[in-house]
Write a structure and sequence with these properties.
- There is one protein chain.
- The chain has 3 domains: 246 residues, Alpha-Beta Barrel (TIM Barrel), CATH 3.20.20; 97 residues, no CATH class; 57 residues, no CATH class.
- The chain is built from 20 helices and 13 strands.
- The protein has a 6-stranded parallel sheet with strand order 3-4-5-6-9-10. Strands 11-12-13 form a 3-stranded mixed sheet, with no helix packed on it.
- It is globular and about 70 Å long.
- The two termini are 36 Å apart.
């Protein structure tokens, strides 16, 4: 099989892993090395940094030839699919060639369990070593760890990668046993704990080493490693001289909807992972029925549920919410409105909040007031009393916030609870529809001509409620506005 065929198969097989964004690595220029990517401001995988650069990763599997039989996975050993495996040399050279052509700025490398966990992990490490040492690559590398691999291999990988991830896949241990019989919760949590301890130990000049799979990892001082006689310890010590140990931290991913666990339980698990292992992110992936199995749902999970979980995760990480406040363990998040609105509606005793007197914690609990807006309010009210118009200028989302605040003692929202619920639900649905329609070619193809001009009548095109009115139409928009649906389709697909 040639290299292009392998790339086609293995890049397609990697599309279900969502844990490659928000890298957070800081790699400056080093003489004699290539790549000085800093992704601390923005994430990777087709996103934009603050200076306008598109930061992109080569996202690929080393192999999709798996010896495991996870029922939800397209690469499971019993599934009839094309198999391919890169050699470390092929993958390292491919990555560098992509980088030299300015296609990518880093690598996200995962793999099926090829032959055995240790064997697969060694291949991943060999690939990273070739990039770092042979090609002197100083760019971003994300390695997907293999559960049940030797702790020494985990340690070595952490000294080469910017970020690692061990995906829990399923939020419940019973679901894991039923749908992924070769995996255990312990085999996933142990390396996550090792990485968290290793990062702390590295900061204090120590290394976390486990000689055997069944041996409890032990802390060794740098001097102890220096005096060690074994070749393995000496190799680890040489690697440990690098000033970076997993600088972008670690992440995990959970599939939502393949098993019966509720959102409340998922959020509690996420909160525990953040506390115990200092994870950078917990990613959620709505279940897609990519394989037929009687143990799995026949239809996929709605993306809205995934969206609500991300909103709740944001509340936990940046707004000081505890998982128990957001949802009970045996319930799902409401779909009508976002979790912050849902919490506010359940706690009317905390509202309305006077924006000129409330502390930061209270402001952050108001729907429509984010971290930036809350800090702006606190800074501005030191000099003047804020009015409703002042809040508009600060771009507070008043269609939500007005129901939960007062400004100079004046209330501008609805007093009836049912009316507030209806308005919040309508606002959330409207925003979701507008966002989704932006990427819908069918909506553009069949839209009324007036709606295709930037600044056209928003009412003329359902979903485009936030159309800009201050921008002149470009040439493509002119073609779309003056054409038939058939010609519009050609314009949108690049044929015209």
């Amino acid at each position: 099989m040639n290299l292009l065929d392998k790339l086609t198969i293995l890049s397609d097989a990697a599309k279900y892993d969502a844990a490659c964004t928000s890298s957070g690595a800081k790699r400056g220029y080093q003489e004699g090395k290539i790549g000085c990517t800093s992704t601390s401001v923005a994430g990777c995988c087709h996103t934009f940094s603050s200076d306008g650069r598109c930061v992109t990763l080569l996202k690929v599997l080393l192999s999709n030839d798996c010896c495991y039989n996870c029922k939800y996975c397209v690469n499971r050993c019993t599934n009839d699919t094309s198999r391919a495996t890169f050699t470390p040399e092929e993958l390292a050279e491919l990555t560098i060639e992509f980088y030299r052509r300015n296609y990518i700025e880093g690598l996200f490398l995962s793999s099926a369990v090829y032959k055995s966990p240790d064997y697969t992990m060694e291949l991943l490490i060999q690939t990273a070593e070739l990039l770092r040492r042979k090609y002197r690559f100083n760019g971003y590398i994300h390695l997907k760890g293999i559960p049940k691999a030797d702790p020494l291999l985990v340690e070595k990988a952490a000294l080469l990668a910017d970020r690692m991830s061990y995906n829990l896949e399923l939020p419940g241990e019973e679901s894991l046993k039923r749908l992924a019989p070769q995996k255990t919760k312990k085999s996933l949590l142990l390396p996550m704990g090792q990485l968290a301890q290793g990062k702390k130990a590295f900061a204090s000049g120590r290394r976390l080493i486990g000689a055997q799979q069944n041996e409890k990892p032990r802390l060794l001082t740098v001097s102890g490693l220096q005096n060690a006689q074994s070749e393995t310890a000496a190799t680890v010590f040489r690697a440990a001289k690098r000033p970076l140990y997993l600088p972008a931290g670690q992440t995990t991913q959970m599939i939502v909807g393949a098993s019966p666990e509720r959102d409340g339980k998922i959020l509690r698990l996420s909160g525990a992972l953040y506390r115990k292992f200092s994870l950078r992110r917990v990613y959620f992936s709505a279940y897609l029925p990519v394989v037929n199995d009687p143990s799995l749902p026949s239809v996929g999970e709605k993306l809205l549920r995934e969206h609500r979980l991300y909103q709740a995760d944001w509340l936990m990480r940046y707004y000081g919410f505890a998982p128990e406040e957001i949802a009970d363990e045996d319930e799902n998040l409401p779909v009508e409105y976002d979790p912050k609105c849902a919490w506010a509606l359940r706690h009317p005793e905390n509202f309305p909040v006077e924006v000129n007197r409330a502390d930061l914690a209270s402001l952050l609990r108001v729907p429509g007031i984010g971290v930036r807006s809350a800090n702006k309010i606190i800074a501005a009210r030191r000099h003047t009393k804020l009015t409703y118009e002042d809040l508009k200028k600060m771009r507070v989302v008043l269609k939500r916030a007005r129901h939960f605040i007062t400004a100079c003692g004046k209330f501008y929202g609805e007093e009836k609870e049912e009316r507030v619920k209806a308005l919040l639900s309508a606002a959330d649905v409207s925003e979701s529809a507008a966002q989704l329609s932006m990427f819908s070619a069918d909506a553009l193809i069949n839209a009324p001509p007036a709606a295709l001009l930037s600044g056209g009548n928003a009412a003329a095109m359902p979903g485009f409620t936030g159309a800009r009115t201050d921008l002149p139409p470009n040439e493509t928009q002119k073609k779309l506005q003056l054409s038939t649906p058939e010609i519009r389709r050609s314009v949108l697909t690049g044929e015209l």
